[in-house]
Amino acid sequence: MTTNGEATGQRMYRLIRKLYPICRSITGNGFRKSLRILQDRLELTMQEVPSGTKVFDWTVPKEWNIRDAYVQNARGERIIDFQRSNLHVVSYSIPIKRKIPLRELKEHLHTLPEHPDWIPYRTSYYTEDWGFCLPHRQFLDLDEGEYEVSIDASLEDGHLTYGEYYLPGESPHEVLISCHSCHPSLCNDNLSAMSAAVELAEYLSQSPRRFSYRFLFIPGTIGSITWLALNEATVPNIKHGLLLSCLGDAGSSTYKLSRRGDALIDRAAKNVLEHAGESFTILEFVPYGYDERQFCSPGFDLPLGCLMRTPNGKYPEYHSSADDLDLVQPDALADSFEKCVRIINVLEQDGYFINLNPKCEPQLGKRGIYRGLRGQGDLPNRELALLWVLNLSDGKHTLLDIAERAHMAFDTIHDAAQTLTKHDLLRRADQVEHG
Ligand code: ZN
After folding, report:
1. Is it the case that residue 431 has pLDDT exceeding 90?
2. What's the CA gap between 321 and 138, in Å, rounded?
């Protein structure tokens, strides 16, 4: 591992802070503005797909843009103001300017009674409606009387925008890294993953690569459906996939398995988390959550899992104004990034090897790579790893197979393979990818 954790975490946090104030949605100028900020770091292309485009069973929606919104009381005071927080307006609200009584206004207000100081995050993408979100405490204090509601927004034919960054490697076979990028001022869900993807793309652009990498910054659900519909010819190249989400909170790491459950990416992620020396959770696939719902739909069934810390819906601040710049922390971001790199290293470095001295063990001691104090019970892991690699490198077991069989970190097994290769005791069987 060559990354500098502290600097990485700070850089990731700075990007989140830059993106945080922007009002993003599944379409519109906030999404474009965010991608332009990412373009300062990556040469990502911005794709524009016209409203009305048929994408499988869905249709690219009209484009939504908002300039201002408020609720004003009879005294002319803006009691709910989009300028103070973009979460105050239900995303995709249709334009409106009317005076209405409190009774009618209340039908369009959303609160979180269990967290009375937080503003909820609500959307109405596929039903034309309008609404405001506010702290429950404020809701309880609303006086009877008339209110002016104003949403200066447009919902018109336009485009769905997404960002794509392709990094070619030795092989045309691809690793897909995807994150939804459509939430407004929410940090963990999902600015944390956007910043992790940028960091990862930069890191990989400076590393030798066996695989090619494709990064997608897309609006949730409709973005992955649109991308899959327009890029079906590319899909067979995708051999591994990792969806990133909620990577900055203080919780421990979670990996949600792909629909297949035993794909190489699943095994790689499991090995990394099992040997990170911290608590972690492996979740079974369920057809709910983020864009894995589309990438792992039966017609594609991509080997794509989801790396998170605390999963969506499982932390109280989820989809509220409390998912803010305090909820995400540089050290958690750096730790998540490090895990992404380790998982990708497994994909990059795994392979079949051949023991060049298969008849009995080679004498490692005389080569200076094995101390094996006689009579002492347990061998150090590093030396046991040498024995495992020699024993199972018959061209039928990959390094990850060996790591799993030996209950060791992939890194330890890979290091052993490198040492043995250096001493002409091992060679790579081929460069054929598997998985
Ligand atoms: Zn969300």
Report:
1. no
2. 14
